[in-house]
């Protein structure tokens, strides 16, 4: 019965779309607002020949990708508009006068501190020194995991990515999820591909890591050695990661474990 209902619904929807497209007139709702914009279509193309061009041809012909963007579309426009609105809210909070301890005061001060590049430059890497000291004190695998757990609590996913979302086999409940993480490059393949484009990205990443070490006091030789140590460790870790193709297998990704107690630290 459900299958028949879905089939009938799909047929009705396609009929409405094709009818409205053939007449080049937007379908109008009871409120008088159109929800099919035929100006984005190319009605000179037969849908049976190239359905994508038929639906999107008009939009493609008149749309250009801004030099500051890698794509174009309604989704990107909404994203950028939302960022502008958030910027306005944060800017007004930073400049406003709020009661001490209020949400407005906290948000405004937090934003202002992040935008204070002069103070940030003066501080250098001093704010990171306590964390670097913790790293220097690590002596064994147990200490590594304790550090990783603490960083997770602070919102920094290192070796393991964590999150909460619907159970893949029971969407009625949310569960904690863990996944592979810890790489500086976007995914494992960057560490193993040898095409020019990938090698260019790897080289730029290595230059960046080396620069970070020089900013924390190392000379160029020491920074280069440390950079290679970091990169080789990440490459070793990448070898244990699943590829993007392997991650498409929902069954292999689902490894649910029932625990009576759970302690992050």
Plain-language structure description:
With 265 residues, the chain is mainly alpha-helical. Among the domains are: 2-62, no CATH class; 69-123, no CATH class; 188-238. It contains ten helices and two strands. It has a two-stranded antiparallel ribbon. Strand 1 (160-167) and strand 2 (170-180) form a beta hairpin. The chain is extended, with a radius of gyration of 26 Å. The two termini are 51 Å apart.
For this entry, give a set of tags.
10 helices, 265 residues, 2 strands, extended, mainly alpha
Question: Structural class of the secondary elements?
Answer: mainly alpha
Q: What distance lies between the first and last C-alpha atoms, to the nearest angstrom?
A: 51 Å
Query: Could you state the order of secondary-structure elements as H and E?
Result: HHHHHHHEEHHH
Rg of Cα set: 26 Å
Nearest-integer average pLDDT: 86
Helix proportion = 40-55%
Task: Kindly report the oligomeric state of this protein.
Answer: single chain
Determine the strand fraction and express it as a percent band: 5-15%
Helical stretch count?
Answer: 10
**Uncertain ranges:** 1-27
Major beta sheet, strand line-up:
1-2
Shape: extended
Total number of beta strands: 2
- Quick one: biggest sheet? 2 strands, antiparallel
List the helices and strands and how they pair.
Layout: H1 2-22, H2 51-62, H3 74-95, H4 103-115, H5 117-123, H6 129-136, H7 141-153, E1 160-167, E2 170-180, H8 196-215, H9 220-238, H10 250-253
Antiparallel strand pairs: 1-2
